[in-house]
Design goal:
Radius of gyration of chain A: 21 Å
Helix content of chain B: over 70%
Strand order of the largest sheet of chain B: 2-3
Strand content of chain A: under 5%
Strand order of the largest sheet of chain A: 1-2
Helix content of chain A: over 70%
Number of helices of chain A: 7
Oligomer: heterodimer
Structural class of chain A: mainly alpha
Order of helices and strands of chain A: HHHHHHEEH
Distance between the termini of chain A: 48 Å
Radius of gyration of chain B: 19 Å
Chain lengths: 145, 142
């Protein structure tokens, strides 16, 4: 194992500890970025022509781990299916409705839709752009729309 | 070489999933990622100058990112609503009604049952041991 490998493994361990202990998303993002950039800065001086590929892959890998764990954290917080499962276990009242009814407001807040005078929600230019990407992704992943 | 491996594993994952939801076919998708990892780690070590530690960290991160993005695209309520609004503008009430009629509670419940996370016995729903395990993990990480 090279020094860059050891540093990369240590950075990953640090990232996993941060993921476990830091529950606030913005703090996690900042810490994850700091770990990845810290690794890149600390090891850049050791890189030469023969080891540059290894260093690039390691740095990209740490970035991908930071991003992947971020999505997992968001899923753990927001997943409707997980909330339903928790509701079934706890015998809680229906949590499905309240999860859905907040989404149109969220879309307006982000600027994906605007409300027409008729009261209808219409896609903004940005919304149409994102919806186009979504339609393409549905087609690629063979998701029924 | 790495980009080609990523394209290959994503195609292999789609073939392994075969149109089923990620929640249901996760084990098959994981097997596809493991299967493509083995030749990739060998080829990159021999021809690409990338060691197994770097590739393993990259592969783990790539899998997590793929899993997160794929799962989000598949299940996101917000993205579904965008797709509905792409067809036509709707009031909030109609949008929620349209969403729930196609992708509502019944469908989510069916997925939980199909994925073995919940059990239905005599019309009563309960969480399976697999579901309890997942809820336990989630509670520790949430």
């Amino acid at each position: 194992m090279t020094a860059v490998d050891a540093c990369g493994a240590l950075a990953l361990l640090l990232l996993l500890l941060v993921f476990y202990f830091v529950r606030r998303v913005p703090v996690y993002v900042a810490a994850g970025a700091a770990i990845t950039l810290g690794f890149a800065a600390a090891t850049f001086g050791t890189v030469n022509l023969a080891t540059v590929s290894n260093w690039v892959v390691m740095t990209l890998g740490l970035g991908a781990c930071t991003f992947g764990l971020l999505i997992v954290r968001v899923m753990l917080i927001r997943s409707v299916s997980l909330n339903m499962l928790r509701g079934i276990e706890g015998g809680a009242a229906d949590v499905f409705g309240e999860n859905i009814e907040t989404r149109p407001d969220e879309m307006r807040r982000i600027g994906l839709v605007s409300r027409a005078p008729s009261g209808e929600n219409a896609l903004t230019g940005f919304g149409r752009f994102v919806a186009g990407i979504v339609a393409t992704a549905y087609a690629i992943f063979r998701i029924k729309s | 070489m790495l980009a080609a491996a990523l394209v290959a594993v994503m195609v292999a994952s789609e073939l392994a999933l075969g149109g089923t939801k990620l929640q249901t076919g996760l084990a098959r998708a994981l097997a596809a990622w493991a299967l493509v990892y083995l030749p990739t780690v060998y080829l990159l070590a021999v021809y690409g100058g990338v060691g197994p530690v770097a590739l393993t960290i990259f592969w783990g991160g790539a899998f997590l990112s793929w899993f997160g993005v794929r799962s989000h695209i598949e299940s996101s309520i917000l993205l579904r609503m965008l797709a509905i609004l792409r067809r036509r503008s709707l009031t909030t009430t109609d949008l929620v009604t349209e969403y729930t009629s196609h992708y509502g509670k019944a469908m989510r419940l069916e997925e939980l049952l199909r994925g073995g996370l919940a059990i239905k016995e005599n019309d009563a729903l309960s969480v399976s041991p697999k579901g309890k395990f997942i809820l336990g993990v989630v509670a520790k990480l949430r």
